[in-house]
Specification:
Blueprint (H helix, E strand, L loop, with lengths): L1 H28 L14 H4 L4 E5 H7 L4 H5 L5 E5 L7 E5 L7 E5 L2 E3 L17 E7 L18 E7 L6 E9 L3 E10 L5 E12 L4 E6 L2 E6 L5 E14 L2 E15 L13 E18 L3 E19 L7 E22 L2 E16 L8 E15 L2 E15 L9 E12 L7 E12 L3 H5 L11 E15 L4 E16 L2 E5 L4 E5 L2 E16 L5 E15 L18 E10 L4 E9 L2 E2 L9 E2 L2 E14 L2 E10 L7 E3 L2 E2 L4 E9 L1
Parallel strand pairs: 4-7
Antiparallel strand pairs: 1-6, 2-3, 4-5, 6-7, 8-9, 8-37, 9-10, 10-13, 11-12, 13-14, 14-15, 15-16, 16-17, 17-18, 18-19, 19-20, 20-21, 21-22, 22-23, 23-24, 24-27, 25-26, 27-28, 28-29, 29-30, 30-33, 31-32, 33-34, 34-37, 35-36
Length: 659
């Protein structure tokens, strides 16, 4: 545990000290040339009324992230749930709220799963992403948003590369445990009126990594089994300037087959379960402006999701159990924005979604859901002050083939945000926000065999945040130092959990949670010369997330399962003409796997150290980029989820040709 606290101390202490040294060096050795004064556009993460963290394309390239979940590990307040290996399910919980309170938005349209309520982040390759943005609430950024984006506590936004010029990328990857990958990306931009991009990604891994199994003093060296994956992703994007506006379209196809390794113990080393996924969706977004005051955005999406699960076991009369689920979703949204004054804006968005689930279960309920969201927002800005407010109306109507359905649900959810810049140079920003949100029960929560409970109430959450950001910019060696700190309080009511009843487990509303925390971040950029730079990013999170349901219960005010009290990260990069080097540290404190915080339920903290090296070459009109990654270089043996061991030391090599 001392190692974790030491690492977190380094995370927060190193960057500011280097900034001071850099400022002193700059004042002694450099004479700045005369420059023309221009308006400085501050980063949106600095001026936002709510906590906002972003990973740019440059960050992805520089740090060598393998996937979306890997990049999220280095954000404050984020807890990635990882079941191990390349093919393991990866979800994200932000500020202790749970994965189902985080929505994923891909190029302006929310990705949904009405059956489970969570999205596997391993489905999205990083090769064609320009940025990832994590927003904890809505802060009024002046852009039009769909009403559905306001319905979640946290929004993870993924943005594809812009179609600004013609280019082609071909990349090959290889690594430990049978990992192999290939990707192709082609972007065609014949004129300023339209563009087309196509990309395909393939990866496979046998997932047979070694781990240590400890059971009552018995230590055994084993290999992870049934953790293989074959996955293929194809995507096509277009943008067309049409009728004074821009039309963006996307067609996405994801096909995978994987083993489900299950939990490991001394007597069960193999898990004979497999999962097949087929996900295809098509979406379109059209945006335009009318005059100087009106904006319009229209969205449409069709989503088809097929999954097939098979378990081979003598417990079944046929020797196996096969579950097939097919989801269909139709979704549309219309948003209108009006700006009567340059510093005052209003918007109104209305969304409708229809979801249907079919499966091969006996006496299947075949649920259907009609959902609507209507969001009204207002934003007022001055030079040193910005205020935003929104009101979301959510209506859910369910229907089932047999039995009872969830009663009609309606709720109004307000949110407010304010940011103030008290200094003349706009370096310091103070912010505060309040957001009400709810999580509607999923089809699995309500209707899954004997587990479902149609009487469930939606989870309700109220989020409070107060914080500050500071940006210090310079020239010469010292370029900028960004600091942020946020304190928050989240209250979750009617929490949906699975609890044992007389004979079977049932989904019940049981519980209330209080979550108090602090997120702190520091970022430093130093330009040592024209071709050499140093970059530092550090994050620290404190989360006191406790159960406050019943004062007489044994777990009253105990830390919620799998929520560390302390966590943090540090990344350092040195860019130079020879080889770019990055060091990544992820630190997670001890957690508990069950609601009672006993010694038997304690999971130790861990540190994960990784290195990334890359070098780019240019040959006339062709570019070559080579990258090597050394992950978990100390071979740390740890688990994110109990009895799901993570890989130890591993390596990965990649080569990309651009022309």
């Amino acid at each position: 545990m001392l190692r974790v606290f030491y690492a977190l101390f380094v995370c927060l202490g190193l960057a500011p000290m280097i900034a001071v040294v850099a400022q002193e060096s700059d004042s002694l050795q450099y004479l700045l040339p005369e420059v023309d004064a221009v308006e400085v556009v501050l980063p949106v993460a600095v001026t936002s009324a709510v906590p906002l963290q972003q990973v740019s394309r440059d960050d992805i390239e520089r740090l060598g992230f393998a996937g979306v979940a890997d990049a999220l590990k280095y954000m404050s307040g984020v807890n990635v749930r990882d079941y191990g290996g390349v093919g393991g399910l990866k979800t994200v919980s932000v500020r202790g709220m749970g994965a189902k309170h985080t929505a994923v938005c891909y190029d302006g349209v929310v990705v949904s799963d009405a059956q489970s309520g969570v999205v596997d982040l391993g489905r999205f390759p990083l090769g064609n992403l320009s940025a990832m943005t994590l927003v904890m609430g809505q802060g009024g950024d002046g852009a039009l948003h769909s009403a559905r984006e306001y319905s979640s506590s946290t929004l993870l936004s993924l943005r594809s590369l812009s179609l600004n010029r013609t280019m082609t990328n071909i990349e090959l990857e290889g690594g430990s445990f049978g990992y192999a990958g290939a990707s192709f990306y082609h972007r065609y931009k014949p004129s300023g009126k339209w563009g087309l991009a196509f990309n395909g990604d393939y990866l496979r891994s046998d997932g047979m990594y070694p781990f240590t199994l400890v059971n009552s003093g018995l230590v055994m060296n084993e290999k992870r089994r049934d953790s293989d994956i074959d996955a293929f992703t194809v995507e096509a994007n277009t943008d067309v300037w049409l009728g004074g506006g821009r039309l963006d379209t996307k067609v996405y196809c994801y096909i995978s087959e994987r083993g489900l390794p299950g939990a490991v113990n001394l007597y069960n080393k193999e898990n004979r379960e497999r999962l097949w996924n087929r996900n295809i969706f098509a979406q379109a977004r059209y945006g335009c402006s009318f005059g100087d005051s009106w904006d319009l955005q229209a969205l449409f999406k069709y989503d088809y999701n097929y999954s097939r699960y098979r378990e081979i076991s003598p417990n079944y009369s046929a020797g196996e159990q096969v579950d097939v689920n097919i989801q269909n979703e139709f979704y549309t949204s219309l948003a209108v924005g009006y700006r009567p004054l340059c510093n005052l804006g209003f918007s109104l968005a209305a969304d409708v979604a229809y979801n249907a689930l079919e499966n091969n279960f006996e006496n299947s309920k075949a649920p259907r859901r009609l959902s609507s969201w209507v969001a009204a927002t207002a934003e007022y800005k001055l030079r040193c002050f910005k205020f935003s407010a929104s009101l979301l109306a959510t209506t859910i109507v369910d229907d089932v083939r047999t039995g009872d359905a969830m009663p009609l649900f309606f709720r109004l959810s307000p949110s407010f945000g304010v940011v103030v810049s008290p200094l003349d140079d706009d370096a310091l920003h103070l912010r505060a926000s309040v957001k009400d949100a709810c999580r509607v029960p999923t089809f699995a929560d309500l209707y899954y065999l004997r587990l479902g409970n149609v009487g469930l109430k939606p989870e309700k959450a109220t989020q409070y945040n107060i914080g500050a950001t500071y940006l210090l910019s310079g020239s010469g060696v010292f370029r900028n130092l960004t600091l942020s700190v946020d304190g928050y309080y989240n209250n979750v009511r009617d929490k949906i959990v699975a609890l044992p009843t007389m004979y079977v487990w049932r989904m019940l509303n049981f519980g209330e949670a209080d979550i108090v925390g602090v997120d702190a971040a520091a970022s430093l950029r130093l330009a040592l010369s024209e071709k050499m730079a140093l970059m530092f990013d550090a994050n620290y999170s404190f989360q006191y997330a406790v159960d406050v349901t019943d004062a007489s219960a044994k777990n009253y005010r105990h830390q919620l399962p799998y929520t560390p009290l302390h966590s943090g990260s540090l990344t350092m990069s040195f860019e130079n003409p020879i080889v770019n080097i990055s060091y990544l540290l992820s630190a997670v404190g001890e957690r508990y796997m069950l609601p009672q915080n006993t010694a038997n339920n304690r999971m130790p903290g861990y540190l994960e150290h990784s290195f990334s090296l890359n070098r780019s070459f240019s040959f006339n009109r062709m570019g070559l980029r080579l990258q090597a990654e050394l992950l978990n270089i100390t071979g740390e043996q740890y688990e994110v989820i109990k009895n799901y061991p993570m890989p130890g030391f591993q390596w990965r090599l990649s080569a990309r040709v651009t022309f």
